[in-house]
Design brief:
Shape of chain C: globular
CATH superfamily of the largest domain in chain C: Periplasmic binding protein-like II
Number of strands of chain C: 12
Structural class of chain C: alpha/beta
Largest interface: A-B, 34 and 37 residues
Strand content of chain C: 25-35%
CATH class of chain B: Mainly Alpha
Strand content of chain B: under 5%
Largest sheet of chain B: none
Radius of gyration of chain B: 21 Å
Shape of chain B: globular
CATH topology of the largest domain in chain C: D-Maltodextrin-Binding Protein, domain 2
Number of strands of chain B: 0
Oligomer: heterotrimer
CATH class of the largest domain in chain C: Alpha Beta
Number of domains of chain C: 2
CATH architecture of the largest domain in chain C: 3-Layer(aba) Sandwich
Distance between the termini of chain B: 57 Å
Structural class of chain B: mainly alpha
Helix content of chain B: over 70%
Order of helices and strands of chain B: HHHHHHHHH
Order of helices and strands of chain C: HHEEEEHEHEEEHEHEHEEHH
Chains: A mainly alpha (about 230), B mainly alpha (about 230), C alpha/beta (about 280)
CATH topology of chain B: MetI-like fold
Largest sheet of chain C: 9 strands, mixed
C-alpha cells in the first residue's frame, strides 16, 4: 500500500468536493435544527397538556418516530412519501433538490422526537408548585408555561438539547443513502476516485470532529455559566 | 401490505438462509444482541477508567470517548470495514465488521452510563467499604457496581434499543439485515414502496417500542424501591 | 484537546504498518483452503444477482467463477459486496478474485490486475420518452442517477460536463429513482441497463435507451497484483471456456434471444486483455 499522502486527496477537485460536502452538512444541520425545535416544543406541550387526546397524539408521535431507525425514515421520505404526493407537488420537489428536502424532512421529525422528550423532562423538572402558584394567581395554562415554567426549564433543557444537536450533526451522515451530497457522500466519492481510503477518511473524521468538539465545548461552557439552580 | 408480508415473510425474517448467509430480522436481532453483550464488559472497563484516580488511565480514555462520540457511527463503520483486516491480519466480512464497529462505538456510550451510575452512588459507600478493609477493586466489585447496576439497567435497555436501530446502517456496507432486505424487495416490486417501507417501519417499531416499554417499567420499579433506600 | 492528534495518528500508523504482511502464493493458499472466494455484486442482473424467490446467487459472472474454481480444483464461493468496496475487499484479502462487473481501466491497473476481458460493452443512458431527450448532449444541466463507486459517474461527467449526477448504493436503487421521476436519466453498463429495461414489461413504452455509448467498457475478472501463478491459471481457464465453445454458450444463456436482453450475436471473444 502506498504511503500516507494527504496531498493526493487535497487536489483542487477533491478539496472542492469535500468542502462542498462539509458546507452542505452544516446547512442541513442548521435548517433541521430551526425546524425541529418548534415542532419539539409543540409536541412536548401536547404531552403535558391536560387534554387526553393531545397527550395521546404527542405520545404516538414521539414513540412512533423514536423507535424507527433514521435510515428507514430517510428511505421512506425519499422513496415512499413522494409517491403519495399529488403530481404537481412531486414535480416541484424533484426540480428543487429532492435529496436535500427529503433528508431535511426525515431528520427534522427524527430530531424533534428526541428533543421533545428532553424538553418535556426539563419542564417536568420544574417543581409543580410553580405551575400551581401561577394558575392560582390567575394565569392560564399557556401563559403559566410561557412566563413562569419555561424560563426556569430552559436551564435544565439546554444541555440535553445541545447533546441532541450533536447527534443531529452526526446523523446528517446517514443522508448519503438517499443521494444527499453531504460530507460522507463526498468522502465516498473522493475515496472511489483517488483509491486513498486512509487519507480521505482521516480528513472526513477530522472535519466531523471539529464541529463536534465545538458543540461539546459549548455544552461545557453553558453548564459552567448557567448551572441549574435548585430550589 | 398483507400480501407483501405473505409472499416475502421468510426473506424478511432470515434473508437467504440456509441457501446463503443469515439475514433479515433474525440477523438484526442477533447482531444487536451480540453487540450489546460484548460492549458491556468493554464499556464497564472504560467507565471504570473514566472514574479512576489515576491520570494516566483517565485522560487517554476520556479523550478516546470524546473522539468516538464526536464521530458519526457511519464513519466508524467505514473505518472498520476498510481497515480492520489490515490491522488484525484476519479477513473479516460484513457481520464481524459491523459487530466490531458497534461494540467499539456503543462501548463508549456504555462507559458514560457506567460512569454516571458509579458517580450516582454516594461517596459514603466507597469510604465505608474502604474503611472496612476492602481494597478498591473489592469495594467496586461487591459494593459500588451492584448498586450502580440497578441504576444503569433502564439506560442499558435503552442502549439496546439504540443498538438495534444502529444495525440498520449495515445496509450501507451490504450486510443483509432487515433494512437491506426490505430495499431488495422494494426494488423487485417497484410499485409498492409505501407498503414495503411501512412494513419495515412496523417491524422496527414493534421490536423497539416493546423494549423501551421494558426500560420504562424497570425505571418505574427502580424509583419505587429507591425511594425506600437510605440516603447516606 | 491535545489527545486527538496522537490517537488518530497512532491508529493510522498501526493500520499502515500492518499492511506490509508477507506476500504468499495466493494460488497455493486457495488450493489449501479448498475454495475460491469470488466477490460478486449480487445486484447486477444478469451478471450476478439474487433470485428473491429461491434466494440464491446466480448469473454470468457466478458461472465464470465456478469455471475458474473447477480449473483450480476447488469449490466456488460467491460473496456479495458493494460496488464501492470491490477493490478494497480484493486488496485486503477478503475475496480472492473479483467477478463484479469490474471495468478494466488504466487507472485501476495501478492497484489491481485484470484477467482476459470477459465481456465488452459500453455505458449508456436510459431516459423517459416524455423527457424529449434523444441525444446524450441534451442532458446538459439536467439530473441523472447512477450507482456509487463505479466508472459511471466519471464517464458521464466526461461526456457532459454540466450534468448533475446523484449516486445511490446500488444500481437498482438508482433505477427506482428514475422511475419515480427523480431524475431525467439513468446511467449504467449496457447489459445492466438493457436488463432493467426488459424488466419494465408493459412500461417499456415509456422509456428508451439512448443509442450513443458514453464509454466502451471491457469487463474482466479482478486479481490482486503480483500473483502470476493465479493470473496464468485464471486466463487459461477462460481461454479453455472460449475454445471449447462454453463461453459462447454462457453468453447466450444469460444474454441471448431467450433472455431479457435479446442479444442476437456476441460481438467479442474471450481472448485478449487489451483496452
Amino acid at each position: 500500500m502506498p504511503h500516507f499522502d494527504l496531498a493526493a486527496v487535497l487536489t483542487d477537485e477533491f478539496r472542492g468536493w469535500l468542502i462542498s460536502g462539509f458546507l452542505l452538512s452544516l446547512e442541513l444541520t442548521l435548517i433541521v435544527w430551526l425546524l425541529a425545535l418548534p415542532l419539539a416544543t409543540f409536541t412536548a406541550l401536547c404531552r403535558l397538556s391536560s387534554l387526553a387526546p393531545a397527550r395521546w397524539v404527542g405520545f404516538a408521535l414521539v414513540e412512533g418516530i423514536r423507535n424507527i431507525p433514521l435510515l428507514v425514515h430517510l428511505l421512506f421520505w425519499y422513496f415512499a412519501v413522494p409517491e403519495l404526493l399529488p403530481e404537481s407537488i412531486r414535480a416541484w420537489l424533484y426540480e428543487h433538490n429532492a435529496e436535500f428536502i427529503c433528508a431535511a424532512g426525515g431528520l427534522t421529525l427524527y430530531t424533534a422526537a428526541f428533543m421533545a422528550e428532553d424538553i418535556r423532562s426539563g419542564i417536568r423538572a420544574v417543581p409543580i408548585t410553580q405551575l400551581e402558584a401561577a394558575r392560582a394567581l390567575g394565569f392560564g395554562f399557556l401563559a403559566s408555561m410561557r412566563r413562569i415554567v419555561l424560563p426556569q426549564a430552559v436551564r435544565i433543557i439546554v444541555p440535553p438539547l445541545i447533546s441532541q444537536s450533536l447527534n443531529l450533526w452526526k446523523n446528517t451522515s446517514v443522508a448519503t443513502v438517499i443521494g444527499t451530497a453531504e460530507l460522507m457522500y463526498q468522502a465516498q466519492r473522493v475515496e472511489t476516485a483517488s483509491f486513498r481510503g486512509v487519507e480521505t477518511f482521516t480528513l472526513t473524521t477530522l472535519a466531523y470532529l471539529s464541529v463536534s468538539l465545538i458543540i461539546t465545548a459549548l455544552a461545557v461552557w453553558f453548564q459552567r455559566r448557567y448551572p441549574v439552580r435548585t430550589a | 401490505m398483507i400480501d407483501i408480508i405473505d409472499t416475502y415473510w421468510l426473506y424478511f425474517l432470515v434473508g437467504q438462509y440456509p441457501d446463503g448467509p443469515l439475514g433479515g430480522l433474525v440477523l438484526t436481532i442477533l447482531l444487536g444482541f451480540s453487540a450489546l453483550v460484548l460492549a458491556l464488559p468493554f464499556g464497564v472497563l472504560l467507565g471504570l477508567a473514566r472514574v479512576s484516580e489515576r491520570r494516566w488511565l483517565r485522560w487517554p480514555v476520556t479523550a478516546l470517548v470524546y473522539i468516538v462520540r464526536g464521530t458519526p457511527l457511519l464513519m466508524v463503520i467505514f473505518w472498520a470495514y476498510f481497515f480492520l483486516p489490515s490491522v488484525t491480519g484476519h479477513k473479516t466480512e460484513q457481520f464481524s465488521t459491523m459487530l466490531t464497529a458497534l461494540v467499539f462505538f456503543n462501548g463508549m456510550y456504555i462507559a458514560e452510563i457506567v460512569r454516571a451510575g458509579i458517580q450516582g452512588i454516594a461517596r459514603g459507600q466507597m469510604e465505608c467499604a474502604r474503611s472496612l478493609g476492602l481494597s478498591y477493586v473489592q469495594a467496586m466489585r461487591y459494593v459500588i457496581l451492584p448498586q450502580a447496576a440497578r441504576n444503569m439497567l433502564p439506560s442499558l435497555v435503552n442502549q439496546f434499543v439504540t443498538t438495534l436501530k444502529e444495525t440498520s446502517l449495515g445496509y450501507i456496507i451490504g450486510l443483509a439485515e432487515v433494512s437491506f432486505i426490505a430495499n431488495q424487495i422494494n426494488i423487485q416490486l417497484l410499485t409498492r414502496p409505501v407498503a414495503v417501507f411501512s412494513t419495515l417501519a412496523l417491524v422496527y417499531f414493534v421490536l423497539c417500542f416493546g423494549l423501551s416499554r421494558l426500560a420504562y417499567y424497570l425505571e418505574v420499579r427502580h424509583s419505587r424501591t429507591a425511594a425506600g433506600t437510605a440516603r447516606s | 484537546m491535545k489527545a486527538i492528534a496522537p490517537v488518530t495518528l497512532a491508529a493510522v500508523l498501526t493500520g499502515l504498518l500492518s499492511m506490509h504482511a508477507a506476500v504468499a502464493d495466493q494460488l497455493a493458499d486457495i488450493r489449501k483452503k479448498g475454495e475460491l472466494v469470488c466477490g460478486v455484486l449480487g445486484t447486477d442482473e444478469p451478471m450476478s444477482f439474487i433470485d428473491a424467490r429461491t434466494r440464491t446467487l446466480i448469473g454470468y459472472e457466478v458461472d465464470l467463477c465456478e469455471a475458474v474454481a473447477k480449473k483450480i480444483g476447488v469449490s466456488a464461493k460467491p460473496r456479495q459486496l458493494a460496488v464501492a468496496a470491490r477493490i478494497p475487499e480484493l486488496q485486503q484479502g477478503r475475496v480472492d478474485i473479483l467477478a463484479a462487473t469490474l471495468t478494466h481501466t488504466k487507472e485501476r491497473e495501478a492497484v489491481v490486475d485484470f484477467s482476459l476481458n470477459t465481456f465488452v460493452t459500453g455505458q449508456r443512458v436510459m431516459v423517459r420518452k416524455d423527457s424529449g431527450i434523444t441525444k446524450v448532449a441534451q442532458l446538459a444541466g439536467k439530473k441523472v442517477v447512477t450507482v456509487k463507486g463505479g466508472t459511471q459517474e466519471p464517464n458521464m461527467r466526461k461526456a457532459v460536463p454540466t450534468v448533475e449526477v446523484v449516486t445511490f448504493e446500488t444500481a437498482p436503487q438508482a433505477f427506482v429513482a428514475l422511475q419515480q421521476r427523480k431524475a431525467i436519466g439513468f446511467v449504467n453498463d449496457e447489459v445492466s441497463l438493457l436488463d432493467a429495461f426488459g424488466k419494465l414489461g408493459p412500461a417499456q413504452k415509456d422509456y428508451v435507451v439512448l443509442t450513443e455509448s458514453i464509454s466502451v467498457e471491457a469487463i474482466a475478472l479482478g486479481l490482486r497484483k503480483n500473483e502470476p501463478a493465479l493470473k496464468t491459471l485464471v486466463n487459461d481457464a477462460l481461454r479453455e471456456l472460449e475454445t471449447s465453445g462454453q463461453a459462447e454458450q454462457l453468453f447466450f444463456k444469460w444474454f441471448g434471444p431467450s433472455s431479457r436482453l435479446k442479444y442476437q450475436t456476441r460481438n467479442f471473444k474471450i481472448d485478449s486483455d487489451r483496452i
